[in-house]
Amino acid sequence: MTSAMTTLTFDRSAAPARLAVADDRAMLKAAAEATRDLNTPNAAIYWGDLIASALVGYAALVGAVTVASTGWTVVLAVVSMLALYRAMSFIHEVSHMKHANLPHFRAGWNVLVGVPMLIPSFMYEGVHNLHHAKTRYGTSEDPEYLPLALMKPWTLPVFILVSALAPVGLLIRYALLSPLSLLVPSLRRAVVERYSALAINPHFRRRMPEGEAKSLWNRLEAACSLWALALVAMVATGVISIRAFAIGMAVAAGVAVVNQLRTLVAHLWENEGEAMTVTAQYLDTVNVPPPALLPMLWAPVGLRYHALHHLLPGVPYHHLGEAHRRISALLAADSPYHKASYRGMPGLVWKIAKSTMVTR
Predict the structure, then answer these.
(1) What is the distance between the alpha carbons of residues 195 and 9, in angstroms, rounded to a whole number?
(2) What are the residues whose beta carbons fall under 8 Å from the beta carbon of 186, sequence distance 6 or more?
C-alpha cells in the first residue's frame, strides 16, 4: 500500500545539485564478469528458506497467542515477527525472478505469506522494477525514493512511525475498499492507482493492470478481500479473541516497522530528482557486509547487499555473498565499489539524520 506518508507535505529547503558521478566502467565490467556463473537460482534454497521461515513465524505466533506468561508472549511475538519478516522479504525476489526458473514459487509465496499478511505479490511486481530503471532511479517517477537526507529532521521519525499503521491500512484496503471499489468505478481507479503499491513516493500512481497481470491481480485481490473480511468477522463474533487479534496486529506492525527501518538505511537518499549514472546510483545505495551480524535479521534474503543488488539485480539472494567476496577481492582498494559498504544500521541512521540538520 502506498505509505501513510502520502498525507504529508514535506517542507524541504532547496539543495544544490549533486555533482555528476561518471560511470566507473571498470567496476561495472568486473562485477558482471566475476559473477556470470551466479545467476541461476537454487530452487531447494528458495523453497526451503521460505517454508521454514513461514512455519517458524506462524508457529511462534500461535505460541504467543496461547501461552499465559507475558514474558513468553513477548519473546515468541518477536520470534514470529523476525521469521515472518524474512518470509515477507521474498516478495523482493518474486519481483525480480524469471518465473520459469522457479515454477510456482510466486503462487507458493502468495499462499504462505502474501494473502495471509495482506501483501499480495502484485503490490510489488510492476512497482519495484521502476525503482531499478536507470532513468527513473531517484527521480519523481521512482516509487521507492524520497530525498530523505535533504528533508526536515522531523520527517525521519514520522517516516518510521507511520509504518506501524500499515496492518490497519491493509485491513481497510482489502476488507472495505476492495468490495466497495467493485461498485464504484471511480473508487476502483483510486484504489489501484494510490493504494495498491508498496511505495514511499506520495506522487506515484500505478497504471491499471491489463491482460494476464490483471487476471492474477483480480484472483489475489479476491483472496485477500475474503481473508480480510473473514478475519474481521471472526474477531467480531469472538472466534478470534481481542487479545489474539491484538498480538497478531502487533507482530504485523513490528514487521512493517523493521522493514521501514531497513528501507531508511537502504539508500543515502541524497538525490533530489535528477537522473543519475549507474555508479552514482550505486554510491547512493548501501551494502552492510560481514562481519556485521545483525543485518542477517533486519536485512534478510540478500537485502544487506542492496548496493550490489542494484549493480546486479539478476543475481539470486543466496549468491550475493559470494558475488560480494569475488568483486571485493578483484577491485583495487580505491574502487568506488568499496565506498558503498557500511558497518551497520546505527551509523547509517546517524549519517542520514545529520544530513537533515544541515542548513541549505
Answers:
(1) 18
(2) none
The CA distance from 308 to 323, in Å, is: 8
- Dist CA 81 CA 287 (whole Å): 23
Q: Encode pLDDT of 41-76 as tens digits.
A: 999 999 999 999 999 999 999 999 999 999 999 999
Q: What is the pTM of this model?
A: 0.93
pLDDT in tens, 239-279: 999 999 999 999 999 999 999 999 999 999 999 888 899 99
Integer angstrom CA distances of residue 357 from 84, 90, 209, 211, 265: 35, 35, 41, 47, 17
Distance of alpha carbon 250 from alpha carbon 252, whole angstroms = 5
Cell numbers placing 137: 532511479
Distance of alpha carbon 202 from alpha carbon 8, whole angstroms: 8
Residue 159 C-alpha cell reads as 517516516
Quick one: pLDDT band at residue 18, thresholds 50, 70, 90? very low
Backbone angles phi, psi at 165, to 5 degrees: -85, -5
Whose CA is closest to 48, among 290, 289, 318, 254? 318
84 with 76: CB under 8 angstroms?
Answer: no
Is residue 106 within 8 Å of 93, Cβ to Cβ? no
Residues 6+ apart with CB under 8 A from 128: 92, 95, 96, 143, 144, 198
pLDDT score of 12: 40
- Residue 167: is the preceding peptide bond cis (ω within 30°)? no
Q: What Rg, from alpha-carbon coordinates, does the chain have?
A: 21
